[in-house]
Amino acid sequence: MWDDWQATIEEIHDLGDRVLIVAYQRGCAKTTGVPLDMRYGQIWIFRGERLIRTESYADPAEAKAAVERLG
Fold it and tell me: Quick one: which H or E segment has residue 5?
C-alpha cells in the first residue's frame, strides 16, 4: 500500500494500565503517489499484560488530553 513507509516512536509515557505513544510516520501511497507525513498520538490500554484497546488521534495533543480525561 505504501512506498518507503517509516514510523518512529518519539515519546512513550507509561501510565499504569495505559501507555501514551507519540509517533511520526511518513511514506508515499503506491497507487496514487499521495505523500503521508504525519505526527499522531495513540493510547494503548492494557488489562494485565494484555493489550485490549488502542485509540488513535491525528493530533498528539488530543491524545494527551484524552489521557487526562480518563484519569
Answer: strand 2-14
